[in-house]
Amino acid sequence: MTPLRQRALAALWRAGRPMGAYALRETLSEEIGRALTASTIYRMLDCLCAQGVATRVESRNAFVACAHPEDDHACVLFVCERCGQSTEVENKKLERLLACDAESLGFTIKHHIVELSGFCAGCQDAGK
Fold it and tell me: CB-based contacts of 45: which residues, under 8 Å, 6+ apart?
């Protein structure tokens, strides 16, 4: 992994919530002291996702560091609508259920991510 990709992954970890490509570009440009192009950032993010160390949050058009990069697993993300924080969980039961459904349909799963949108405990408490 290149030093710039390592910095990008570290920035995603520090963010603690889904981070858009342009926000990542700003962060990295400030860190390294030179402007980065959007295409550079998108290529970097594509590579991090392909390596399984980052995940694209489809509903937010943003990215997060993968909480379980050592395992090939179905990514289950809980994304708070209020604060934007995301939490990834690994759920083997859900994976088996999806694999069973796919098999019964003769379907091959290429990419597996489940996003659940709602409110985290902190935001629920703050709203009371």
Answer: 8, 21, 24, 54, 56, 63
